[in-house]
Amino acid sequence: MSAENKPVIRRWFDEVWNQGRVEAIDELLAADGVVHGLGDGGMTGPAAFKVFHAGYKDALPDVAITLEALVAEGDMVAFRWSATGTHRGGGLGIPATDRAVRFSGMGFGRVRNGQLVEGWNNFDQLGLLQQLGVISLPG
User: Fold this and answer.
1) What is the total count of domains within the chain?
2) CATH number of the domain within which 6 lies
3) Is 29 domain-assigned?
4) Is residue 137 part of a domain?
5) What is the mean pLDDT of each run of 10 residues along the chain (139 residues)?
6) Does any domain span residue 95?
7) 117 is a domain residue
């Protein structure tokens, strides 16, 4: 059962993020699916996630995500990824800087019947903001 869930995560990153196929969100995220770690509270369902996705793709329209590792057990898939992109829009609430960025993250996805029903995300937002020149650390 667990190995069958890895392709769902692969499709999510390839189709939703790399190809920008918005309709894949409806295909891969369950109507009651909850996504955690991408803002205040969680997002429930495809419509809520599409708002986040649109803002992110506006800010980084050429984002390219590479899955570095996938580990599955039962209905859970753990994943680690790296990404590159160019900050060309204000969808993150930051005016475009035209800066190239490189960042990484990891998470867990719970899969049921070929769809994500819950996801937990953690990525290097601080590093991303530093690369955009929004935050600088002392030192």
Assistant:
1) 1
2) 3.10.450.50
3) yes
4) no
5) 88 96 97 89 91 95 97 97 97 94 97 96 93 88
6) yes
7) yes
The rounded distance, in Å, linking the Cα atoms of 68 and 133 is 27
pLDDT of residue 1: 57
Instruction: Judge contact between 101 and 124, C-beta under 8 A.
Output: no
What integer pLDDT is reported at residue 67 of this predicted model? 97
Identify the residue whose tokens are 């869930």. Answer: 5
> Which residues span the domain enclosing 66?
2-131
CA distances from 44 to 31, 33, 79, 96 (A): 8, 6, 21, 28
Alpha-carbon separation of residue 138 from 8, 123, 130, 135 (angstroms): 41, 21, 12, 10
Between CA 71 and CA 79, with CA 77 as vertex, the angle to 5 degrees is 65
The 3-state secondary structure of the chain, one letter per residue: CHHHHHHHHHHHHHHHHHCCCCHHHHHHEEEEEEEECCCCCCEEHHHHHHHHHHHHHHHCCCCEEEEEEEEEECCEEEEEEEEEEECCCCCCCCCCCCCEEEEEEEEEEEEECCEEEEEEEEECHHHHHHHCCCCCCCC
Amino acid at 9: I
